[in-house]
Amino acid sequence: MSTLGDLSVSLRDFAANVQTEGRSIALSLSGNADMAAKDSLDALLPRVHGEAQRLGVTEVQVDFQKLEFMNSSCFKSFVSWISDIGDLDPSKQYKIRLLSNPEMHWQRRSLHALRCFAVDLITVEP
Amino acid sequence: MTQTPTAFELTFRPNVELISIVRRFVSDFYERMITDADTVSRMALATHELLENAVKYASDGVTFLSITFEPGDVTSTVSIRLVNRANPEHIAAVATIFEEMSRHDDPFAHYQVAMARSAKRKVGSGLGLVRVRAEGEMTMSHSIEDDRVTILAQTTITARRSS
Questions:
Q1: 3-state DSSP call for residue B7?
Q2: What ipTM was estimated for this complex?
Q3: By three-state DSSP, how is residue B78 classified?
Q4: Residue B53: in which H helix or E strand, if any?
Q5: Backbone Cα Rg of chain B
Q6: pLDDT digits (tens, 9 = 90+) for B17-75
Q7: pLDDT confidence band for B81 (50 / 70 / 90)
Q8: Which helix (H) or strand (E) element contains residue B141?
Q9: pTM value?
Q10: Whole-number Cα distances in Å, A27 to A57, A67, A119, B63
Q11: What is the interface size between A and B, counted as CB pairs within 8 Å?
């Protein structure tokens, strides 16, 4: 597994790490995704989207398990990403698997909302 | 769950860092009084989103936040109130969101509509207040007096008396 260092984000209170292995991409988020993280996330997700298309992946895994909170602006970044996948030709679409932490109670509703936004593209675990 | 009414009020000039600090404080504070962690999480989310809304729209930068917890025999009520001054453009934007809420009885369905619209927006998300209603499971209301906007988010939780 290799880290795409130029796609990673490291802020004081928020971090994102992108790794690839073969034709799969794993994005892990940690910390606090508030207004301070918005610009970074807005820049990061389109690049992950581009990388996913370049590699021809069938799925991108997004690990929320260490993410304490995500505000609506950062949530919107995910909505836009999912919308962009939905805009692709069906043969080029890939799925997103969201890994949640049941102890982070906000995640249950937020990730459920993302799943309902594109039930064919999104799965949530557990 | 505590049977003592609790409240706190804060008047300040919120900035990005303070909002998350206040959210964590709300979480820590009410975790000691409300046994239901999910309710506390919803309160924290609502506080965060409402404060960010105030940061964006407060014309003088000053925001008043109050959170009250009123325990009852059967149900308890949590109220989160934000007051700030805003310019006419932003007052109209808030009024539009609340008007839209009034046309959507189902908060989650409304949230999905707002998400679809938000996906292509270049500026702002337009999701904050809608998210508080849907994910926070809050009843939302607002009032406007001159240039002063008050937003009230409330939720009712089942009271469980401690033995």
A1: strand
A2: 0.94
A3: strand
A4: helix B37-57
A5: 16
A6: 789 999 999 999 889 888 899 999 999 999 999 999 988 888 888 999 999 999 888 89
A7: very high
A8: strand B139-145
A9: 0.94
A10: 13, 12, 20, 36
A11: 78
Domain range list for chain B: 6-158
Q: How many CB atoms lie within 10 A of CB A93?
A: 16
Interface membership of B48 toward A (CB under 8 Å): yes
Q: Is B134 on the interface with A (CB under 8 A)?
A: yes
Cβ–Cβ of A82/B119 closer than 8 Å? yes
Assess whether the previous peptide bond of A126 is cis (omega < 30° from 0). Answer: yes
Strands B139-145 and B75-85: unpaired
Domains of chain A, first to last: 2-125 (3.30.750.24)
The answer to whether B16 contacts chain A (CB < 8 Å) is yes
pLDDT digits (tens, 9 = 90+) for B95-104: 999 999 999 9
**pLDDT (mean) for A18-29:** 91
Architecture of domain B6-158: 2-Layer Sandwich (3.30)
What angle, rounded to 10 degrees, do the helices at B37-57 and B16-31 form? 160
Q: How many residues does chain B have?
A: 163
Separation between Cα atoms, residue B82 and residue A2, nearest integer Å: 46
pLDDT digits (tens, 9 = 90+) for A64-115: 999 999 999 999 999 999 999 999 999 999 999 999 999 999 999 999 999 9
Provide the shortest C-alpha distance from residue B147 to chain A (in Å).
Answer: 25
Residue of A nearest to B113 (CA): A117
DSSP H/E element including B11: strand B6-12
A59-70 and A95-99 strand pairing: parallel
8 Å CB contact of A110 and B135: yes
